[in-house]
Write a structure and sequence with these properties.
Blueprint (H helix, E strand, L loop, with lengths): L1 H19 L1 H7 L4 H23 L5 H18 L5 H13 L3 H16 L5 H24 L3 H25 L1 H7 L15 H22 L4 H22 L15 H16 L4
Helix pairs in contact: 1-2, 1-3, 1-5, 2-11, 3-5, 3-6, 3-7, 4-5, 4-6, 6-7, 7-8, 8-10, 8-11, 10-11, 11-12
Length: 278
């Protein structure tokens, strides 16, 4: 009957992903069937940790995060947890041998969100690594399915893709982060006087990440390539919309891709895939 518990736990991670991110859920469904559940398991874990620091304002967030951290390592060590999100995550960690350093770095970045409000360049890069790049690397462990040589080859590209996604999130969520959570992730920026030069410099850095990441997507195993490419195109489209927004208006609304736009992106990506044009 343990298999039923595994199944129920992993269904919780899938539901969590679908409720919190329609874009990622759609992209995950385009992966090979063997890869979908492990990626849902990773997303469920990072989503819950992020919720603790971003939304549980009426509770003792440091204690909740510390308890979550302890329970995470305990689940990985024992190979079981009564928390279904952590149980499904440990299944994936242990199945694919995900490096514990990646989990350490991710949880440390979550801890920074409890108190850190502004970042210098070094702190910003460290936060990006822990909050986003390592998530891409966890997924890469799944995509490579034990091929360590491939993992090392694709590692820099996975980091770039994770960084690009996170930086686009920062631009999209400026209002919520700055006004709601009093966080400023981009170093040296005053969002009370956010200039065209500030925005252009951030966008150039993000474009560099996207360009580098695309090179790696072309090298991914076929089982993973199309799903990752669609996620890349979703975020690239969002980035292009944000680039059109004037700096003084960037905090007035949360930019998003409408559902019909996502359908168009998926259809176009499918055609390119069929024509071997990725």
């Amino acid at each position: 009957m343990i298999n039923l518990f595994h199944e129920v736990s992993q269904e919780c991670s899938r539901i969590t992903t679908e409720k919190y991110s329609t874009s990622f859920s759609s992209a995950i469904r385009l992966l090979n069937k063997d890869l979908r559940t492990p990626i849902f398991n990773i997303y469920g874990f990072v989503r819950f940790a992020d919720e603790i620091v971003d939304t549980f304002h009426d509770f003792d967030k440091p204690i909740l995060l510390q308890e979550f951290k302890i329970a995470t390592y305990d689940a990985i060590e024992k190979g079981i947890s009564m928390n279904p999100i952590l149980h499904s995550f440990q299944i994936t960690v242990n199945q694919f041998g995900i490096d514990r350093e990646l989990i350490d770095a991710f949880l440390y970045s979550m801890e920074l969100d409890l108190d850190q409000r502004k970042y210098d360049r070094a702190g910003y890069e460290q936060y990006i690594y822990g909050s986003a790049e390592v998530v891409g690397l966890m997924c890469l462990f799944v995509f490579c399915e034990g091929d360590k040589k491939m993992y090392e080859q694709l590692k820099p590209y996975a980091r770039s893709l994770g960084a690009a996604f996170q930086k686009v999130n920062f631009l999209r969520d400026l209002k919520a982060d700055y006004e709601g959570l009093e966080r400023v992730y981009f170093p040296g920026c005053d969002f009370r006087n956010f200039t065209s030069e500030d925005k252009a410099a951030i966008e150039a850095d993000i474009q560099k990440d996207f360009d580098h990441a695309y090179e790696g997507i072309l090298l991914l195993p076929l089982k993973a390539r199309f799903g990752v490419y669609v996620a890349y195109k979703y975020y690239l489209s969002l980035f292009k919309k944000i680039k059109k927004v004037r700096p003084q208006n960037i905090m007035e609304e949360r930019i998003r891709i409408p559902d019909y736009g996502k359908v168009f992106i998926l259809a176009k990506a499918g055609i390119r895939s069929q024509l071997n044009l990725l």
